[in-house]
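Sequence design from tokenized structure. All designs in this work follow the same two-part layout: the structure record, then the generated sequence. An example of the structure record is given first.
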């Protein structure tokens, strides 16, 4: 009996040690109540943490982005977004969930990699645009909560972020016209397939797969705004933070099925990829197959 108790205590201690390590130095660091190895700067709208060695110090520039993000989304941050600036690549990769330049977590925290800060310093990317993109995620994550944030449509999350940050046509992201041309050339990622096990089965003949998909989703958001108005987009966006069924919410707000909208959108792209006009009301005849949301 005593031996069993010792083993149980040992197991608990080991598991506790592992969890403490993960929260302080591993993949759960984004959710840690304690931030070790970073200096804290609390500003009017945000909290900036930076590792020793970070040369970027214009924190006020980041802080001014928060009101702009809130204005576009017509939502206020429930708590100041926390942005962590890394100087050490190994530390970033150990604590981040991806190798991307930036990473936004379901609790609203944002990580900025050392190479992203360097690229911004060298003028390769706009730090303001990228941080604005991540702040869009952070804001929606805060309003969704952990569970609903995990279930929020991934394509819409990225489409709104790119659209609101005016990111199309900057850095590696193709602009609207270029994205239209690529879609006309039989490139299309069905939104519901994005971030699923079937995503890799969709072939895309594009230079940068990720940036194309993000611009494609931003084009869908742009289409919804131009055709139905931004107010409906915001209602759609906010309703989904409550964990509501996507297809039901879309139909209630837009008066059409999501798949039907995608068919109309792709026809609109085909029409406007061939002309200089982008009249959103100039639509071709309806397609006969409403489920044709895959590659043309």
């Amino acid at each position: 009996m005593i031996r069993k108790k010792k083993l149980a205590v040992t197991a608990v201690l080991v598991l506790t040690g592992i969890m403490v390590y993960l929260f302080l130095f591993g993949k759960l660091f984004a959710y840690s109540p304690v931030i070790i190895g970073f200096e804290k700067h609390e500003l009017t709208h945000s909290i900036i943490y930076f590792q020793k060695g970070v040369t970027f110090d214009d924190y006020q520039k980041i802080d001014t982005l928060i009101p702009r993000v809130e204005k576009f989304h017509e939502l206020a941050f429930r708590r100041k977004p926390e942005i962590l600036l890394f100087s050490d690549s190994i530390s970033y990769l150990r604590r981040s969930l991806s190798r991307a330049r930036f990473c936004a977590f379901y609790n609203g925290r944002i990580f900025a990699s050392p190479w992203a800060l360097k690229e911004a310093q060298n003028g390769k990317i706009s730090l303001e645009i990228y941080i604005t993109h991540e702040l869009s995620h952070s804001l929606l994550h805060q309003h969704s909560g952990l569970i609903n944030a995990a279930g929020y449509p991934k394509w819409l999350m990225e489409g709104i972020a790119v659209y609101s940050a005016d990111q199309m046509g900057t850095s590696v992201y193709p602009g609207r016209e270029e994205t239209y041309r690529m879609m006309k050339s039989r490139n299309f990622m069905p939104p519901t397939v994005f971030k699923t096990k079937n995503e890799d089965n969709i072939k895309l003949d594009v230079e940068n797969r990720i940036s194309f998909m993000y611009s494609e989703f931003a084009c869908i958001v742009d289409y919804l705004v131009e055709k139905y108005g931004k107010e409906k987009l915001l209602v759609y966006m906010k309703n989904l933070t409550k964990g509501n069924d996507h297809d039901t919410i879309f139909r209630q707000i837009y008066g059409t099925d999501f798949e039907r909208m995608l068919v109309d959108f792709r026809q609109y792209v085909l029409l406007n990829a061939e002309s200089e006009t982008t009249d959103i009301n100039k639509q071709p005849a309806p397609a006969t197959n409403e489920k044709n949301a895959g590659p043309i």
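The chain has three domains: 1-34, 36-151, 154-272. We note this feature because it recurs in several other targets discussed in the main text.
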